[in-house]
Amino acid sequence: MRRLQLYIEDQRVDLFKDESVSLTQTIKNVKDLKKVFTEFTQTFSVPASSVNNKIFKHYYNFDISGGFDARKKSVARLELNDLPFKDGKIALLGVELKNNLAHTYKITFYGNTVDLKDILGDNELASLPLNQNQIYDYTNVKTRLQLVSNDILVPLITHTNRLIYNSSSHPVYDPEATTNNIYPHTGATLNGVAWNEFKYAIRLQAIIDAIESKYNITFSNDFFNDNTNEQFHNLFMWLHRKSGDVEQAAQVEVIYTRLDDLVVKTGSTEYISTVSDGVISVNAPVGVTPSLLRYQFDPVDDTAVYNVRVLRNGGIVVGELNGVTSTRGLDINAGSSGLINNSTYTVEISGVGVSFNANDIDVQLNWLEPGGTPFTGSDLYHNNASFQTEQDFEFNIVEQIPKMKIIDFLSGLFNMFNLTAYVNDTGTIVVRTLDSYYAASTQVYNIDKYLDTTKSTSDVALPFNQINFSYKGLGTFLAKQFEQLTNSGWGSLGFTLDGDIYDAPSEPYKIEVPFEHMQFERLYDAGNSPPTSIDVQYGYSVNENQQPYIGEPLVFYPIRIVGGTSIRVRDTATSDVDDIVNYYIPSNSLALLPSTSKTNIHFQNEFNEYLANEPDSLVAGDNALGFTDTIFETEYKEYIQDVFSLSRRLLKITAYLPMKVYYNLQLNDLIEVGQSRYKINSMKTDLTTGKTEFELLNTILWSRI
Questions:
Q1: Residue 347's domain is classified under what CATH number?
Q2: Do 222 and 279 sit in the same domain of this protein?
Q3: What are phi and psi of 172, to 5 degrees?
Q4: What is the pLDDT of residue 267?
Q5: Which residues contact 646 (CB under 8 A, 6 or more apart)?
Q6: How high is the pLDDT of residue 222?
Q7: Which of 54, 127, 333, 567 is packed most tightly, with the most Cβ within 10 A?
Q8: What pLDDT score was predicted for residue 621?
Q9: d(CA 610, CA 593)
Q10: Which domain holds residue 74?
């Protein structure tokens, strides 16, 4: 029997002689992020001895001044045979009395490791410090479409309109059209895709970095934080929180432009003077009380959305209009305070390229004469020249990132790539794929001499009757078409081994990844006969009715095309166009050709959208299906083969492990019994006796297909 010792604030606690502590570990806990950090806990009943009464300050006696504070946990530690086992804290739950005397204290010991899901809570991705905001305008979007980018880029994914490519004809530009011809026709300045059809995208690793920064946690560089791991490092998320256009207001930081041109209008300028261009001062004499300062705004475009704010004395906002259109008035009322007087006023306007002609902005002052007679002033000032707000605004990433809990984002990645995690001695969260987790250990423990040979069982180990892998988001136009034609989800995988549904006692093994999985479209030149493919592949974020679609957070690989087919991008405000040959096309595959990389983010080996539309059969054909390194193939196949193997057994045995073995044994180590080796499925150990109940899975050797 091992000696168990409990210390509270460095004071040793008296324990009952038969007190035992058990710890259960299972491979399920390293595969489920929400269970990874479920740290050791143990509830004790300890005697109300003189030692313990002193530690807990006779908690049963509430008349004692300065008693034990059970509202908070106390620092504690556990030792086995005078060797450190766990540091943590204890909580006092209560005291049991017998014959009106204290008999036992009930306490719970908590390990120091904090549950990650408790740290993250229900916080969303929008709460992270993603401080890479971008100006959202024609120039910057066009730049991010083309340039080599670290963490922020613009992919060819449209939120509303479909793209076509036709070199032979181009219809007269129609702003209501839902199709954009991106061929650069000479003199056709209004064709091409509007720049504001696009949105920014962020590298997934940048989100991981932000999680580490905000919560002061560190992931290992085995899967995350590894620039050489292209399978993950090259993945991006589209910043698409709302369907359709990028909005101002809450979604972006709008840029206000100061109105700096106000001049005297025909009529009285009584009680108002100009301090500087655009700044007016109200200064009425004693007895005259300014009652209302009125601004009137009449934009050129009655449909343009704009915001207005009036600042008093350069800093205090005293009046606002938010998200308005057409002609609007804004009144600054004095009320009973008469604060309009002896103050200066500045006007700032925001919106995307909202224009006002000369005389479209007026200022008027009303006042009370001595004795209280109201007087309505005429329009005293107006803008003497045309005025336009900034064309751009700041694309605020935390306001544009998809609505998703951080814990769901991480859990989604864990399920997507079959990841495991554990906390090492330095506090780093080690993240590996399941296969690499097992491969990381070469340690084999022969436990023959520790076995309890009186009883063991070898059970059927078939936990699932079939397998289903899918993405939650399969609602875009082309993905829905694929489902209707094939009766299966795009990139999804569902199967039974050898075509049979086995009589397993449980439900199917189901993995549903909480991301959007879009089927992309490669364009061809409809102006040629027959049509010829071009370099452009794009995403079309609309539903089956071709209406703007929100869906789940979209993840994809951006592939940079350099010196490709020229396409036209259009500035909606000025009708300027640029023809570009460098751009990012979205893809479900890491590379354009399987000869470069076969890696993709399908579960099922689907045809490659880029090569499948290639008319040259020598390039298409097998190549279109050559991206064979699906997520299932690379991360799940070996595990699933093991599960369904005819040779699979679940061995249940009991062993009495010495402390030197228990302290060093890890879940990815192999257990040797006789001449056979096993993976650990679970182990439950009584720490005071060393009795360990194992569930072991026999190892099966496979050659990867």
A1: 2.60.40
A2: no
A3: -60, 135
A4: 62
A5: none
A6: 94
A7: 567
A8: 60
A9: 9
A10: 4-27+40-112
DSSP output for 610-669:
HHHT-S-TTTSGGGGG---B-HIIIIIHHHHHHHH-TT-EEEEEEEE--HHHHHH--TTS
Would you mind telling me the total number of residues written for the chain in this entry? 705
22 occurs within a structural domain: yes
Q: Which two tokens stand for residue 478?
A: 């082309």
- Say what the pLDDT of residue 395 is: 85
Indicate the pLDDT class of residue 399, thresholds 50, 70 and 90.
confident
From 578, 593, 625, the end of a domain falls on 625
Write down the pLDDT at residue 412: 94
Residue 450 Rama label (left phi>0; alpha psi -120 to 50; beta): alpha
Query: Is the pLDDT reported for residue 392 higher than 70?
Result: no
Q: What angle do CA 277, 282, 283 make, to 5 degrees?
A: 125
End-to-end C-alpha distance for the chain, whole angstroms: 50
Contact of 92 with 59, CB cutoff 8 Å:
yes
For 288, 297, 473, the CA distances from 272, given in Å and listed in that order, are 13, 19, 60
In a domain, 679, yes or no: no
Q: What is the mean pLDDT of residues 641-649?
A: 66
- Among 17-31, 347-361, 387-401, 584-598, name the most confident range: 584-598
Residue 409 shares a structural domain with residue 544: yes
Local structure of 398: helix, strand or coil: helix
Q: Is 444 exposed, middle or buried (0-12, 13-18, 19+ CB in 10 A)?
A: exposed
Domain count, the chain: 3
β-strand pairing of 567-570 with 193-194? parallel
Backbone angles phi, psi at 294, to 5 degrees: -115, 130
Q: Round to whole Å and give the CA distance between 366 and 374.
A: 7
Q: What does the alpha-carbon distance between residue 606 and residue 588 come to, in Å, rounded to a whole number?
A: 10
User: pLDDT tens, 245-282?
Assistant: 886 544 445 678 888 888 887 666 678 777 677 888 88
Are 146 and 191 found together in one domain? yes
Token pair of 562 as six digits: 């350099």
The answer as to whether 327 is a domain residue is yes
Residue 5 pairs in a beta bridge with 79
Q: Higher confidence at residue 465 or residue 48? A: 48
Q: Are 577 and 571 in contact (CB under 8 A)?
A: yes
CB of 167 within 8 A of CB of 198? Answer: no
Are 286 and 358 within one domain? yes
pLDDT digits (tens, 9 = 90+) for 561-577: 999 999 999 887 777 88
Euclidean distance between CA atoms 618 and 593, whole angstroms? 13
Residue among 210, 235, 3 nearest 124 (CA): 210
Whether 477 is covered by a domain: the verdict is: no
Shared domain for 203 and 348, answered yes or no, is no
Q: Is 512 left (phi over 0), alpha (psi -120 to 50) or beta?
A: beta
**DSSP assignment of 479-511:** HHHHHHHHSS-TT-EEE-GGG-----SS--EEE
Q: Is there a single domain that holds both residue 272 and residue 193?
A: no
Q: Are 235 and 289 contained in the same domain?
A: no
Q: Using CA of residue 83, residue 85, residue 87, residue 92, what is the dihedral sign? A: negative
